[in-house]
């Protein structure tokens, strides 16, 4: 695994890109919550994406999750390239079933299912200069975790000081609904796989080395991932 001084402040997510979006995020909530209904009203149920999934199926897959502690609105799938929608694919690997494989060069995360298959998720990944590769494991798991900005970020962005003691879990928290914290040799790497509320980031490099999945995808992956699960991050 490659970790150097450039990543010293890589605390969970790329703070500049993700915290900066929060002001506009609330204004989008009502639209996002209604996106699944809107697709049906437009009569798009028979239209298929280039990846073989109908828009109606995608709208259902990424629909609202009202039973959560903080109800999650539907993702605006119009902002996601259909190739990043969750699906089962052929994926040959020697890794054991359950292993998570991150392919940052193609913006995918795979969960190995066995028999040559894997569940594939679209992702956002580290931006240039902050990508890393190697083996890690899930050291702990968090639902609606607290996010604490690092001192380095507060120094650069004084407005983040109000969260110096931690931002409580919620829809505006950069870590989202679920987080897998990645460890090596018993030590927290500061890297995570987290739930993103920003569909437009899927398929891009924006973070300080963390990996984000759409909230609905992250909940799906999280539910099948026990602590100690192996995580392999491929070279970009």
From TrEMBL:
Phosphoprotein among keywords: no
NCBIfam families, per database record: TAT_signal_seq
Record CDD domains: YkuD_like
InterPro entries in alphabetical order: LD-transpeptidase, LD_TPept_cat_dom, TAT_signal, TAT_signal_bac_arc, Transpep_catalytic_dom
Pathway in which the depicted protein is active: Cell wall biogenesis; peptidoglycan biosynthesis
Protein family membership: Belongs to the YkuD family.
SUPFAM superfamilies to which the protein is assigned, alphabetical: L,D-transpeptidase catalytic domain-like (SSF141523)
Keywords annotated in UniProt: Cell shape, Cell wall biogenesis/degradation, Glycosyltransferase, Hydrolase, Peptidoglycan synthesis, Transferase
One Pfam family recorded for the sequence: YkuD
Residue ranges of domain L,D-TPase catalytic in the record: 98-234
Protein name per UniProt: Tat (Twin-arginine translocation) pathway signal sequence
GO terms under cellular component: extracellular region
Protein species of origin: Bosea lathyri
Organism classification: Bacteria, Pseudomonadati, Pseudomonadota, Alphaproteobacteria, Hyphomicrobiales
């Amino acid at each position: 695994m490659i970790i150097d001084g450039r990543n010293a402040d890589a605390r969970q997510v790329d703070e500049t890109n993700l915290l900066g979006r929060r002001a506009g995020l609330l204004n989008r909530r009502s639209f996002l919550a209604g996106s699944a209904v809107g697709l049906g009203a437009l009569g798009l149920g028979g239209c298929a994406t280039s990846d073989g999934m109908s828009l109606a199926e995608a709208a259902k897959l990424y629909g609202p999750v009202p039973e959560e502690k903080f109800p999650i609105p539907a993702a605006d799938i119009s902002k996601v390239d259909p190739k990043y929608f969750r699906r089962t694919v052929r994926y040959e690997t020697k890794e054991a079933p359950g292993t998570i494989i991150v392919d940052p060069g193609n913006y995918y995360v795979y969960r190995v299912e066995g028999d040559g298959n894997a569940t594939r998720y679209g992702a956002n990944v580290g931006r240039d200069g902050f990508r890393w590769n190697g083996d890690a494991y899930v050291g702990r798991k968090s639902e609606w975790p607290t996010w604490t900005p690092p001192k380095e970020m507060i120094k650069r962005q004084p407005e983040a000081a109000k969260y110096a003691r931690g931002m409580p879990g919620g829809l505006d928290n950069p870590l989202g609904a679920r987080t897998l914290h990645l460890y090596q040799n018993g030590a927290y790497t500061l890297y995570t796989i987290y739930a993103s509320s920003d569909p437009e980031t899927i398929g891009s490099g924006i973070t300080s080395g963390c990996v984000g999945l759409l909230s609905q995808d992250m909940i799906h992956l999280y539910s099948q991932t026990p602590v100690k699960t192996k995580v392999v991050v491929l070279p970009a």
